[in-house]
């Protein structure tokens, strides 16, 4: 069964610190993997989209990695800011254009 | 930057009533979607729409639901005879091409009482 699992479920860190969020998937056939940021009560906003051949992609302080062999991805946030507090959702698309959503990691940045 | 606009931002309705959630996708986008997210749960796919017809729908999207593109700009989701369990955030999304990323609206919070 196609699944996307994220860890941790929630994370609290101090402002200015770095953190890494994990995503494991069993989706096959794989097309691409996306990381979204979702502020409370808002729609998801795309951070990165990675295809099979891409290992790393950055968007400002966000860096996503992808290991298609182990079916793992991570999202690293550098020098966290209070505005980074949100849910971060990993979404995998299969080659039939189906999106399989993770449950998200709820990140809280404390001053 | 172009946005997907959803109205209203919050709708409260009585059980059994019909509601219409409205979306204005990005003007040059051709593919439209509705998703929902029950509080604290994963985003769930409801339906995709292309070329004035439904291209795919999930098990959730039963006869209670319908979508329409009444004119060149709006894309609506109608929920008939609402139930308590329909309470959720409903997100509209659009994109220009299946190989492009989605742009999501800010959502409509539907509360059924």
Structural category of chain B is mainly beta
Number of strand elements of chain B: 11
Q: What is the C-alpha radius of gyration of chain A, as a whole number of Å?
A: 13 Å
C-alpha Rg of chain B (nearest Å):
13 Å
Topology order of chain A in helix (H) and strand (E) letters: EEEEEEEEEEE
| Fraction of residues in H or I helices of chain A | under 10%
Measured between the Cα atoms of the first and last residue of chain B, the distance is 36 Å
User: What is the mean pLDDT of chain B?
Assistant: 93
The residue fraction in helices of chain B comes out at: under 10%
> Total number of helical segments of chain A?
0
Mean pLDDT of chain A: 94
Distance between the termini of chain A: 41 Å
Provide the β-strand percentage band of chain A.
over 45%
Main interface: chain pair and counts: A-B, 16 and 19 residues
**Largest sheet entry of chain B:** 7 strands, mixed
**Treating each run of at least 4 consecutive H or I residues as one helix, how many helices of chain B?**
0
Uncertain segments of chain A are none
Characterize the overall form of chain B. Answer: globular
What does this structure look like?
With 111 residues, chain A is mainly β. Helices cover 0% and strands 59% of the residues of chain A. Chain A is globular. The N and C termini of chain A lie far apart (41 Å). The mean pLDDT of chain A is 94. The model of chain B has no long low-confidence stretch (mean pLDDT 93). Chain B has strands at 5-7, 10-13, 19-24, 31-37, 43-50, 53-57, 65-68, 75-79, 88-95, 103-104, 108-112. In chain B, a hairpin with a 2-residue loop joins strand 5 (43-50) and strand 6 (53-57). In chain B, the strands form two sheets. In chain B, strands 2, 4, 5, 6, 9, 10 and 11 form a seven-stranded mixed beta sheet that branches. In chain B, strands 1-3-8-7 form a four-stranded antiparallel beta sheet, with no helix packed on it. With 113 residues, chain B is an all-beta fold. Chain B has no helices and eleven strands. In chain B, 0% of the residues lie in helices and 50% in strands. The chains are: A mainly beta (111), B mainly beta (113). The A-B interface holds A 34, 41-46, 49, 89, 97-99, 101-104 and B 4, 6, 41-45, 89, 91, 93, 98, 101-107, 109.
């Amino acid at each position: 069964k196609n699944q996307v699992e994220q860890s941790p479920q929630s994370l609290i860190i101090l402002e200015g610190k770095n953190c890494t969020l994990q995503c494991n998937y069993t989706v096959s056939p794989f097309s691409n993997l996306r990381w979204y940021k979702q502020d409370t009560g808002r729609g998801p906003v795309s951070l990165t989209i990675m295809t099979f051949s891409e290992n790393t992609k950055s968007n400002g302080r966000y860096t996503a990695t992808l290991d298609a062999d182990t079916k793992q991805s991570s999202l690293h946030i550098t020098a966290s800011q209070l505005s980074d507090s949100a849910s971060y959702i990993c979404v995998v698309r299969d080659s039939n254009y189906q999106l399989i959503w993770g449950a998200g990691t709820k990140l809280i940045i404390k001053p | 930057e172009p946005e997907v606009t959803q109205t209203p931002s919050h709708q409260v309705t009585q059980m059994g009533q019909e509601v219409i959630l409205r979306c204005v996708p990005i003007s040059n986008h051709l593919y439209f979607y509705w998703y929902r997210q029950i509080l604290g749960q994963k985003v769930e796919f409801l339906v995709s729409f292309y070329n004035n017809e439904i291209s795919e729908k999930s098990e959730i999207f039963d006869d209670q639901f319908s979508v329409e593109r009444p004119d060149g700009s709006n894309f609506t989701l109608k929920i008939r005879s609402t139930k308590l369990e329909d309470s959720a955030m409903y997100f509209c999304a659009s994109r220009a091409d299946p190989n492009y990323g989605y742009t999501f609206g800010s959502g409509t919070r539907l509360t059924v009482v």
